[in-house]
Specification:
100 residues; alpha+beta; Alpha-Beta Plaits; Dimeric_a/b-barrel; EthD_dom; oxidoreductase activity; Ethyl tert-butyl ether degradation protein EthD
Length: 100
């Protein structure tokens, strides 16, 4: 399995709707990317309020190639168009992670 980390970077001045991200955006990403090999999508949130990360999304795909195919798919435009509904923070794809 291969993981892609997506971070919403910001601070207390940025709008971020955790409920929307968890209950609407992650299921949307799952629906759109499942045909491309997405296995799971999870949300994690910083334990402290003074973090410069508002959320951490962990997207697990079957292969590294599946991540690239999903990111380059036309359907990804639908996922990205949903972002303004839950945040005005900066979205950063941190990396593709593979097991040691």
């Amino acid at each position: 399995m291969h993981k892609m980390i997506v971070v919403c970077a910001g601070d207390e001045k940025n709008r971020f709707d955790r409920e929307y991200y968890t209950n609407v955006h992650l299921p949307l990403a799952s629906e759109c990317w499942k045909p491309y090999g997405l296995v799971s999508a999870e949300a994690f949130y910083p334990a402290t309020s003074n973090s410069d990360w508002l959320s951490i999304g962990v997207y697990t795909f079957k292969t590294a190639e599946a991540i690239n195919h999903a990111l380059n798919a036309k359907i990804t435009e639908k996922i990205m168009a949903d972002v303004p509904f839950f945040t005005d923070a900066t979205i950063i794809i941190r990396s593709h992670f593979t097991p040691f």
